[in-house]
Amino acid sequence: MHMTGLLATLQDALFDWLVNGLGNFSGWQIVAYTLVTTHITIAAVTIFLHRSQAHRSVELHALPSHFFRCWLWLSTGIVTREWVAVHRKHHAACETPEDPHSPQTRGIAAVLLRGSEIYAAAAMDRHMLDQYGAGTPDDWLERKLYTSHSYLGVGLMLVIDLLAFGAIGATVWTVQMLWIPFSAAGIVNGIGHWWGYRNFEVADASRNIVPWGIVIGGEELHNNHHTYPTSAKLSVRRHEFDLGWVYIRGLEMLGLATVRKTAPRLKLGAVTPFADDKTLEAIITHRYELMANYARSLRRASHAEVRRLKSDGSTAGELADMRIASRWLHRDDDKIPNNVKAQVAGALASSPYLAKLVAMREELRMLWTRTNVSAELLVTDLQAWLVKAEQSDIGALQQFGLRLRAARV
């Protein structure tokens, strides 16, 4: 009887543990725990792995650095050197067949659904690790625990979740383990190079998914990041928000972080009578911001042309071509899809005003794309461009020319 009662007690205790765990937490508490822990993981990836380790844009104190390393070991099993190497290779070979995870070459479905597999395969390349993984932690903990026994961390997290929550802890753990492959490998690497808006016309296909970087800690602002990869702050427009930057500023205020670099900001001084090498330096340094300003002028001009065509009684086809062109005129020619190039060409043919703006944009872009030309010749070309802009009858060009003359590093 005594043995039977003991077994019954053990069965009841086991059943109670399976249902409630040791903590007897409510359903809402379990959901809150899951959300908080996955968000900490996101913060660790964007602050430690991405901004601190891969791009060196922020230097972390030993306390948060060790915390993030331990947390990532528990919640992801990510090896710092491998993650950093794969990410640096992505920037070095972006949108080429050598890019470890570009949807432009591998397809959006592959990156979204098999992003973690693609990452794991890339991390097996020892030559890539040697080439791109330099400067990451290499202490005793990293060598003997975090790297050599990366699976122990996620195993320990499973034990913690099961003990705390019972059987539902396995579901909590699954969400924790899938969160980074889904959000970072899938959404950022996939959608971030496929869909969204672009502030800057960089060479790759990066896009900002949304202007408010909250769910993925600011990584949603992917076009901004590819424009200024060494910036610790990923938001650049007034309406954009980077939650990771808020955390970094908080750590900095506590003396636990030092920001090394942020995106350069264009400063305007007095308008100089002649463009010189300093003007050229400022224009090249701030080329992305300046071209974004030029793009806004082009979009306004395109919309004005649509209104003009309407008032002139133009055909539906001409209006349609102009509306399509308004979406693409500010883009580099190789970024305009082949299926709309005819409409863009038709819009330019019907508007000498727009054609002039587009031609001048391309001439300006040549100042930093011609790498085999001397600085002296580029200054001469810049001076000629400014004369053409200021002697044109286009107010937007004249104002932009004055802005370039006032540009300072």
Architecture overview:
By secondary structure, this protein is mainly alpha-helical. It has two domains: 2-259, no CATH class; 277-408, no CATH class. Helix content is 66%, strand content 3%. The protein has 19 helices and six strands. A two-stranded antiparallel sheet has the order 1-4. Strands 2-3 form a two-stranded parallel ribbon. α14 (287-311) runs antiparallel to α17 and α18 packs antiparallel against α19 (395-405). The longest helix has 28 residues, at 27-54. The model has no long low-confidence stretch (mean pLDDT 90).
Keywords:
409 residues; mainly alpha; 2 domains; two-stranded parallel sheet; 19 helices
Topology, element by element:
Elements: H1 2-20, H2 27-54, E1 58-60, H3 62-75, H4 80-92, H5 103-106, H6 108-123, H7 126-132, H8 140-147, H9 150-165, H10 168-190, E2 212-213, H11 222-227, E3 241-242, H12 243-253, E4 257-259, E5 267-268, H13 277-285, H14 287-311, H15 316-328, H16 341-350, H17 352-369, H18 375-391, H19 395-405, E6 407-408
Parallel strand pairs: 2-3
Antiparallel strand pairs: 1-4, 5-6
Helix pairs in contact: 1-9, 2-3, 2-4, 2-10, 3-9, 4-7, 6-10, 9-10, 14-15, 14-17, 15-16, 16-17, 17-18, 18-19
